[in-house]
Amino acid sequence: MALLDALYKEIIFEHYKRPRNHGELHPHTHRQEGVNPGCGDELTLFLNIEGERLVGVSFTGEGCAISRASASLMTEAIKGKSLTEALTLAGQFKAMIHGAPPAEELGELTLLQGISKLHARVKCATLAWVTLEQAVKP
Q1: CA-to-CA distance for 84 and 132, rounded, in angstroms?
Q2: pTM of the prediction?
Q3: What is the C-alpha separation between 80 and 86, in angstroms, rounded?
Q4: 41 and which of 63, 74, 85, 107 could share a cystine (Cβ 3.0–4.6 Å)?
Q5: What does the pLDDT look like over 11-32, one tens digit per residue?
Q6: What CATH code is carried by the domain that includes residue 65?
């Protein structure tokens, strides 16, 4: 378990310090702001959707290590996916963070499973995913 904890911390730190897909996406078809007032996390999600496919995704904003790492990992996981696939991942991720067993499709995102034990950090981990859902809802 110590190895898994170390890997979890390494992944969080790496994505916090060097977030993937960070910066405003040009062009983008969708822009959505998300805020976690309890922690002070703020992000803006940019999506470029062509048909049903997420051809581009990025984010900007400031937040804690968990919030930034989760947003960074999310952008990597959903880029190139269909909206249906991305929203399915969002549901699976949120379920895992709330204590459900992780779905295989989550891949590297399962490293964040331990956050389910840190109730005060659940909103940090799910902020980007909730913002994604808000960005594409009809």
Answers
A1: 12
A2: 0.92
A3: 9
A4: 63
A5: 888 888 999 999 999 999 999 9
A6: 3.90.1010.10
